[in-house]
Amino acid sequence: MENKSKLGVHALVWVGGWSHEECRTAITKTAELGYDYIEIPALDPSSIDVKYTHTQLKENNLGATVSLGLPRHADISSEDPEVVARGESILIDALNVTRDIGGTHMCGVLFSALTKYMHPKTERGINNSAEILYRIAEKAKTAEVAIGIEVINRYETNLINTGAEAMEMLKLIGSNNVSVHLDSYHMNIEESGLGNAIRGCAKRLGYFHIGESHRGYLGTGNIDFRDIFKALLDIGYTGPITFESFSSAIVAPDLSNILGIWRNLWEDSYDLARHAKEFIEVQQKSAQETFRNEH
Ligand code: MN
Fold this sequence. Notes:
Layout: E1 7-10, H1 20-32, E2 37-41, H2 50-59, E3 63-70, H3 81-100, E4 105-113, H4 123-142, E5 146-150, H5 163-173, E6 178-183, H6 184-190, H7 194-201, E7 205-210, H8 225-234, E8 241-243, H9 253-259, H10 269-294
Parallel strand pairs: 1-2, 1-8, 2-3, 3-4, 4-5, 5-6, 6-7, 7-8
Helix pairs in contact: 1-2, 3-4, 4-5, 5-7, 7-8, 8-10
The structure holds manganese (II) ion.
């Protein structure tokens, strides 16, 4: 049993924005550490210089994925058609950016706003979200971009907080180009068990965020990574794994404030990202060893 997952790092480990200099820095350092791809946040798709980014990626022989969450005024799980339409248009813009930089995946909180809701989800809202995501997913097929819906905690969406809820949503969307995107940081808050949540998604898991309980250095919080990597191996997961970590040392005002990144958990991006890659590879090896002993 081999680990075929590509490893990536979230751009916010390096930079808070996407100026040419920030783009170059993030891409060259990610490539230097031997990661396969970089995950670029596109809350505002127009902030990404597509041509420049594509060139930098090519020059560094690095892959890319794109992630985003929708703003309140463009929430596709709203009951207001105008708000829903604004959300669809952001998703289309982000999809075009993903395609044009040569990205393979678009994922994150594509199904609702990324915010603290003060009310539960509604039936009409869920149906709106599923309908739009079907259209986006079908459009994405032509662009050869895979869509992932990220399961996040209750303080950041009211729509999908568990892997089981994401599986229900996939049924409702009804496109084979959408998969579940899990994140260990959020799973630690919401799931009954980490490994079991992964097994519950099995073949429909298409993207994975690896992050600590405090979103800092892997292995310094309380997440049971053995359970996670064993489960990924058990289901034969071969999709991307992105290291995601945030510190007040590097701020993207739109994203960092929503996520509540108030504490300084690290200063040295390079050391953090180098450590994360090594940590993931060690976990993968040890999971393989356990797997072999079982079979
Ligand atoms: Mn995440």
